[in-house]
């Protein structure tokens, strides 16, 4: 009987430890998934297309112009996404309604795409700020070859 009580106490301690550890692991910030692809169409310039998913826009929508009520997308893009070369040169991004570099069906149901013309092959840094009031910033560094970079859902790691 004494052994059974000891075993039960050890089981409760181990169970509580597992519960606490799993809760801590689940609560940790594991980064943000952002899908993107790099390439060119018919020998054109090397481009990047980044998927803007619906929740990104729903959680922090763009402000609207006070008179026309049109969304201010350029402002929203500047506040939420930054793409630079490894040397720190910015790559301008603009909003598109379609992504012609994306494999059919892989992008899911995006809100839109951000597109930028890459100045050269080499290293790039992509940063995403999900919601301005939270003060978090996520970053991924990647390299682009002459043939581009295949579609992927990269994990942007928390940096702030």
Describe the structure.
The chain is of the alpha+beta class and 160 residues long. It has two domains: 1-30; 31-158, no CATH class. Helices cover 25% and strands 34% of the residues. The chain contains three helices and eight strands, in the order αββααββββββ. The chain has helices at 2-27, 54-59, 73-80; strands spanning 32-39, 47-53, 81-85, 94-96, 110-117, 122-128, 138-144, 149-158. Strands 3-6-7-8-1-2-5-4 form an eight-stranded antiparallel β-sheet. A hairpin with a 4-residue loop joins strand 7 and strand 8 (149-158). It is extended. The chain starts with a helix and ends with a strand.
Indicate the topology.
Layout: H1 2-27, E1 32-39, E2 47-53, H2 54-59, H3 73-80, E3 81-85, E4 94-96, E5 110-117, E6 122-128, E7 138-144, E8 149-158
Antiparallel strand pairs: 1-2, 1-8, 2-5, 3-6, 4-5, 6-7, 7-8
């Amino acid at each position: 009987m004494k052994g059974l009580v000891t075993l039960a106490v050890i089981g409760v301690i181990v169970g509580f430890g597992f519960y606490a550890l799993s809760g801590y692991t689940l609560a940790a910030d594991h980064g943000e998934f952002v899908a993107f692809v790099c390439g060119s169409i018919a020998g054109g310039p090397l481009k990047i297309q980044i998927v803007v998913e619906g929740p990104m826009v729903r959680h922090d929508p763009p402000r609207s112009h006070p008179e026309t009520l049109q969304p201010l997308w350029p402002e929203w893009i500047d506040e939420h996404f930054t793409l630079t070369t490894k040397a720190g040169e910015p790559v301008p991004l603009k909003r598109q309604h379609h992504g012609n570099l994306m494999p059919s069906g892989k992008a899911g149901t995006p809100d839109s795409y951000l597109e930028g013309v890459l100045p050269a092959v080499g290293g790039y840094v992509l940063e995403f700020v999900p919601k301005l009031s939270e003060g978090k910033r996520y970053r991924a560094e990647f390299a682009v070859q002459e043939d581009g970079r295949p579609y992927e859902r990269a994990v942007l790691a928390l940096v702030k």
